Every structure is written in C-alpha cells, then in structure tokens.
C-alpha cells in the first residue's frame, strides 16, 4: 500500500493530484464521504482530472468534459480514448492508502509514465 496523503488534505467534492507516484494519481473525497483514487491524467489529452468537476460519483475532465466513473474508471463517452485505472483506496488512522493497479495505464498520446 502507498500512502498518498492525509484525509485532512482532502476537500469534499474536490480532487487532489498526487505526484509521488507515476503516473500521478487523483484522489477524491466524494460528498458521501468515500475516498477514491484514479489515474490523474485524462486518456484524451494531458489534463489533470483532479481539477475536474465531481458529481454523482464521476469526475468531468476540465478540458473536454468526458466524465469518468470513480468506481470503474470508464468514461461516459468521447473524446476520452479509454478508461483510467482505478486504485483501491482506504483510510487508516486518517491517512489515505492505495493499492496501485498493476494494469497498464491508458495515457494520452505524448504522455509517458516516468
Ligand atoms: S483532455 Fe480530457 S476529454 Fe479532452
């Protein structure tokens, strides 16, 4: 498990980009109190999903509005090119821990995982 941040670093309804893992992960504290972690980079172009709009269990990309489900990573449609990875997240003693997906990330053209 990787520690991404503290629960107190998160704001309900907003995302936080974490660069300590590659590719970066976006962590969200949903309005229902659940914590979610997905790859931060949109699968269409190099946009940070942590800066997107969170609503009804999905985050809308800030550039072209594809909406990614926080539980499956699947977008509702184009121009996203595929699903983002979902990482299993849990909160232990106020710290957000994730088990990073071992699947290959779906990154947009021109973006490489460090
Ligand atoms: S960059 Fe996300 S939908 Fe275009």
Overview of the molecule:
With 114 residues, the protein is mainly beta. It has a single domain (2-99), classed as Rieske [2Fe-2S] iron-sulphur domain (Rieske Iron-sulfur Protein). It contains no helices and nine strands. Strand 3 and strand 4 (35-39) form a beta hairpin. FE2/S2 (inorganic) cluster binds at residues 42, 44-45, 47, 61, 63-64, 66, 79-80.
Q: In the CATH scheme, what's the topology name?
A: Rieske Iron-sulfur Protein
Rg, nearest Å: 13 Å
Q: Hetero groups bound? A: FE2/S2 (inorganic) cluster
SSE pattern, N- to C-terminal: EEEEEEEEE
The overall pLDDT, averaged over residues, is 96
CATH architecture: 3-layer Sandwich
Write down the domain tally. Answer: 1
Query: CATH superfamily assignment?
Result: Rieske [2Fe-2S] iron-sulphur domain
Question: β content, as a range?
Answer: 35-45%
Which class of secondary structure composition applies to the elements? mainly beta
Shape call: globular
Largest beta sheet: strand ordering: 1-9-8-4-3-2
Q: First CA to last CA: what distance?
A: 19 Å
The tally of strands reads 9
Q: What top-tier CATH class fits best?
A: Mainly Beta
The number of helical elements comes to 0
Low-confidence stretches: none
Helix content: under 10%
Biggest sheet details: 6 strands, antiparallel
Protein name: Bifunctional 3-phenylpropionate/cinnamic acid dioxygenase ferredoxin subunit
Keywords: 2Fe-2S, Dioxygenase, Iron, Iron-sulfur, Metal-binding, Oxidoreductase
GO molecular function, one term: dioxygenase activity
Organism: Isoptericola chiayiensis
